[in-house]
Design brief:
about 475 residues, Rossmann fold, CBS-domain, six-stranded mixed β-sheet, 17 strands, about 35% helix, globular
Length: about 475
C-alpha cells in the first residue's frame, strides 16, 4: 500500500507480511573466504518474514491452489516439512484464514515444533529412521491425514512444479541482477530440489556456462547415498523428488554432518551471520568450489535460513560434544577407545533380525559382554541403533528356555545403550558408568565403539603407571 505523508513524501508500507517476501540481500563472505582466488557471496534468505527461502514457494503454491480451486476458504493445509516450508505456509494461512497440520521427523530441533505451534498449527512428529514407503514415515503420515481431513489440501512441495517455478521467477532473476550477470558458480543445498532447480534453470538460460553445484549431506541420495539418516536438517533426501531437475546440476558435493555444523558455527562467529546446519553444508561446498576457481570467477551460495532454530543443537556445546563433533579439554573418551584397541576398529554390533544365538557367539568371539543392535551397514547413523543385548540377559533367557536363543534379537533386545561423545571427558564417562554397564561412543554423529567400566579403569591405570 502506497500513500503520502506531509509534503508529498511517499509512504512505503506493505499491504501484508506476504509482500515482504523476496528481494533478499547478498553479502560477501569476507572472512571465511579470505585467501581464496575469487569472492564467495551469500544470498541471505533469512531476512524473509518467515526466516527462510521457503517463504517463496509457500506463497506461490497456495496462490496456485486457490486459483485452481484445490484449496477453498476455511480449508486445512497439510504438509510434511522439516520446518521452514511449514513456517512459510503458516504465514500464508494466518493471512488468509486457513488451518494447518504439519508432519515432522523426530530429528528436527524442538524450536521448530514450538515455532509452528506458535503460528497456531498442529504438529505431528514421526520417526526419521523409517523408509518413505513405511506407513509411519512422515510422507505416509501426511497422506493419511489428508485422506482423514475434510477440506484439506497438501501442497506437496516435493512434487509440485510451482516450487521450482517460484525460484525461476524470483530467486534466479534477483541473483542475476544483483551480480550484474557476473556469477560463474551457484551453490545450494538440495532438499526438495526446488531452489537449486529453479535458480539453476534461470541462470543457465542467461549463461549456459554458469556452474550449478548441489551441496548434499553424506548419506543423501543426491550424492550417491541410500538416504540413511544424517543429522543436518532440511537438506538432502532419501528419494528423488520430481521437483529436482538433475539436468541443470553440474556437480554434487557431499558434506559431512561434522563439517556442516562446524562451518555453521564458524560463519556465525566470523561473519556475524547466524546460520543453521544446512547453510553450513552449502558454505563448506562453496568454499571447496572457490578454491579451484580463478580471479574472474564469482561463487554465489544460497543461505536458506537462520541459525535461530538450531540453538539447542548446532550452537549448544553439550549437544555437539554428545555427538562427538567437538572435543573437551583433558582426557576424553576417544583416548579410552584408542588406548584399549591400539587402533580404532569397526563397531561390533548385531542386526535386529539376527538370531540371539549369533549375538552370544559374537560376544564370545570378541570378549565383550554387550552389543548394540542396529539396522544397516557401517558406517552406521546414530538413528539406526535400535537397542542392545547383554550376555547376562541372554544367559538368563537361555537358562529358562534354550530355544529362545533361536529367536530374533529384536524380540528380546533391551533399550539402546546410553551414548557419549568421543570428545567428552573421561570424568563424564566415569559418572555415567556408575549407573550403566556400558556406553555407546559417538564420533562425528556416528556410533564408533562401546566402552565399559573395565575399559576406563584400564585407561586410568595406564595413566597412573606412566605418571
Amino acid at each position: 500500500m502506497m500513500g503520502t505523508y506531509g509534503q508529498g513524501v511517499a509512504m512505503q508500507i506493505a499491504e501484508s507480511v506476504l509482500d515482504l517476501v523476496g528481494n533478499t540481500p547478498m553479502v560477501k563472505l569476507r572472512r571465511v573466504g579470505e585467501g581464496l582466488p575469487c569472492p564467495v557471496v551469500a544470498k541471505v534468505e533469512m531476512v524473509n518474514p518467515g526466516g527462510s527461502v521457503k517463504d517463496r514457494p509457500a506463497i506461490a503454491m497456495i496462490d496456485a491452489a486457490e486459483r485452481d480451486g484445490l484449496l477453498l476458504p476455511g480449508g486445512t493445509i497439510i504438509e510434511p516439512t522439516s520446518g521452514n516450508t511449514g513456517v512459510g505456509l503458516a504465514i500464508v494461512a494466518a493471512q488468509r484464514g486457513y488451518k494447518c497440520i504439519f508432519v515432522m521427523t523426530d530429528k528436527v530441533a524442538p524450536e521448530k515444533v514450538d515455532l509452528l505451534r506458535a503460528y497456531g498449527a498442529k504438529v505431528v512428529v514421526c520417526s526419521v529412521a523409517v523408509p518413505p514407503e513405511d506407513p509411519n514415515s512422515y510422507y505416509s503420515t501426511a497422506e493419511r491425514l489428508v485422506k482423514e481431513t475434510p477440506g484439506s489440501y497438501q501442497p506437496s512441495q516435493y512434487h509440485n512444479p510451482v516450487n521450482p517455478q517460484s525460484h525461476y521467477d524470483t530467486t534466479g532473476p534477483e541473483i542475476w541482477e544483483q551480480t550484474d550477470g557476473r556469477i560463474t558458480h551457484f551453490v545450494a543445498g538440495a532438499g526438495t530440489g526446488g531452489s537449486i532447480s529453479g535458480v539453476g534453470k534461470y541462470l543457465k538460460e542467461q549463461n549456459p556456462d554458469v556452474q550449478i553445484i548441489a551441496a548434499d549431506p553424506e548419506g543423501s541420495v543426491y550424492s550417491g547415498g541410500s538416504g540413511r539418516p544424517y543429522l543436518v536438517e532440511g537438506v538432502g533426501e532419501d528419494f528423488f523428488p520430481s521437483t529436482y531437475d538433475s539436468t541443470v546440476i553440474d556437480r554434487t558435493i557431499a558434506v559431512s554432518d561434522r563439517d556442516s555444523f562446524l562451518m555453521a558455527r564458524r560463519v556465525t562467529e566470523e561473519e556475524g551471520l547466524l546460520i543453521g546446519g544446512s547453510c553450513g553444508t552449502a558454505v563448506q561446498a562453496a568454499l571447496d568450489v572457490a578454491a579451484d576457481c580463478g580471479p574472474d570467477d564469482l561463487v554465489v551460495v544460497l543461505l536458506p535460513d537462520s541459525g535461530r532454530l538450531y540453538l539447542s543443537k548446532v550452537f549448544n556445546d553439550s549437544w555437539m560434544a554428545g555427538f562427538g563433533f567437538i572435543t573437551c579439554d583433558g582426557p576424553v573418551v576417544a583416548d579410552v577407545v584408542g588406548s584399549r584397541f591400539g587402533q580404532v576398529p569397526d563397531l561390533i554390533y548385531v542386526q535386529p533380525g539376527d538370531p540371539a544365538r549369533d549375538a552370544v557367539a559374537l560376544m564370545h568371539q570378541h570378549g565383550v559382554s554387550q552389543l548394540p543392535v542396529a539396522k544397516g551397514e557401517m558406517p552406521l547413523a546414530a538413528a539406526e541403533v535400535m537397542g542392545s543385548v547383554s550376555e547376562l540377559r541372554l544367559m538368563d533367557l537361555a537358562f529358562g528356555d534354550e530355544d529362545l536363543l533361536d529367536t530374533s534379537v529384536e524380540q528380546i533386545m533391551s533399550p539402546p545403550l546410553p551414548t557419549i561423545g568421543a570428545g567428552q571427558s573421561v570424568a563424564l564417562a566415569v559418572e555415567m558408568l556408575d549407573s550403566n554397564s556400558a556406553l555407546l561412543v559417538l564420533d562425528g554423529g556416528r556410533p564408533r565403539s562401546v566402552i565399559s567400566s573395565s575399559d576406563v579403569l584400564a585407561f586410568l591405570s595406564k595413566g597412573a603407571e606412566s605418571g
